[in-house]
Design goal:
The chain has 347 residues and is α+β, with helices and mostly antiparallel strands. Helices cover 33% and strands 18% of the residues. It contains eleven helices and eleven strands. The longest helix has 19 residues.
Length: 347
């Protein structure tokens, strides 16, 4: 045993030294991941408003004919859910709705259970609505459409639980929130977002696609698996397929946290999580406040082989934003963001 312990200690120290050596810079760290086939995507790191690291790794599609650049857009996955939530708060600030309103006020053709669900329930995933049955369609290689989503809701006889009594993370929430915005403003949700969120706040490359596979693939990072086979799922749903560059996301966060898009009170409301135990998300993902200041904003999203992580930190001295977008999923973007933070010795 006395002989084994020094050997194990030496091995442990060697592993630490190897890891430290490979993590001496963000660039060397990401390049090592890319070289090992563990990352294909874009990275942006901004500190106190200045870009301290930005780079692209790998290919824009499964054919491996075009390299990624910072001009390419990636699907946001669940990070897109911030946009319908913020849109709702803009309308509340204008007095056009109240988050305590029942959704049947604005969505007249849903079953009776809609009279029990508030807009707040949708925002905080406490509506009792089930998860969207994506696999029911994907397994049969069927296209998911607005009408199929609507039919599933119309055929829903009862909720999973009484609204407000439990938590269930469902994509019905942002879909219905977008429909409420559209019904109030009398315009498609995608048009509302472009006019009130994209254009005014410098999201110059942001797009909302009508369907996937994309009709327009210009500067779109196409998702593919570890064998470079491109995703084949088919979706045509209004106002949910958001694609942004890393710079677009940075502009979004900068303006959001400066209370230029919605008020501080509205942002605090969207930071509130439902009061239940477990892996609970607020409408903005996970947002931590201290003394009236956002200390951390974290949001993760994925869709097929897309994966995205957004992390924004404020330690009272420095403001740090880390954005990692991948179009080949390895399930490691959260680790990458954490490792970048460690490399920068940011506490």
């Amino acid at each position: 045993m006395k002989r084994i312990f020094p050997t194990l200690l030496l091995l442990f120290i060697s592993i630490i030294l190897i890891n430290c050596k490979s993590h001496t810079s963000i660039d060397s760290y990401i390049k090592e991941l890319a070289a090992e086939g563990d990352f294909n995507g874009n990275v942006l790191v901004v500190k106190n408003g200045e870009t301290i690291y930005e780079n692209s790794f790998g290919f824009s599609n499964g054919s491996k004919t075009t390299k990624l650049t910072n001009q390419f857009r990636f699907d946001l996955g669940s990070v897109y859910k911030e946009f319908p939530a913020v849109s709702i708060m803009q309308l509340q600030e204008k007095g056009l709705l109240n988050t305590e309103d029942k959704i049947d006020i604005y969505l007249k053709d849903l079953p009776n259970w809609s009279s029990k669900i508030t807009i707040k329930n949708l925002l905080q995933y406490t509506s009792g609505l089930p998860k969207v049955a994506w696999d029911k369609y994907f397994e049969k290689d069927e296209r998911v459409t607005d009408q199929k989503i609507k039919n599933d809701l119309l055929n829903l006889n009862e909720l999973e639980f009484e609204p407000g009594s439990d938590y269930l993370y469902t994509n019905y929430s942002p879909i219905l929130l977008g429909q409420i915005v559209a019904n109030i403003t009398k315009q498609p949700f995608s048009e509302y977002v472009k006019e009130n969120l994209f254009i005014p706040f410098g999201l110059n490359n942001a797009k909302i696609h009508a369907e996937v596979p994309y009709l327009n693939k210009d500067l779109m990072a196409i998702p593919f698996d570890k064998n470079f086979k491109e995703d084949t799922y088919k979706v045509t749903i209004s106002g949910v397929i958001f694609s942004l560059t890393a710079k677009d996301i940075q502009n979004w966060l900068t303006n959001l946290h400066a209370f230029k898009i919605i008020s501080k009170v509205s942002l605090q409301f969207l930071s509130e999580e439902a009061d239940f135990w477990g892996n609970i998300q607020a409408p903005l993902g996970s947002v931590t406040w201290k003394n009236g200041i956002v200390k951390e904003h974290y949001h993760h999203g994925e869709a097929g082989n897309y994966e995205c992580i957004v992390k924004r930190f404020n330690n009272d001295k420095d403001l740090l934003t880390i954005i990692v977008q991948a179009n080949q999923k390895h399930g490691n973007v959260m680790d990458i963001a954490d490792d970048i933070k460690s490399i920068l010795k940011y506490n």
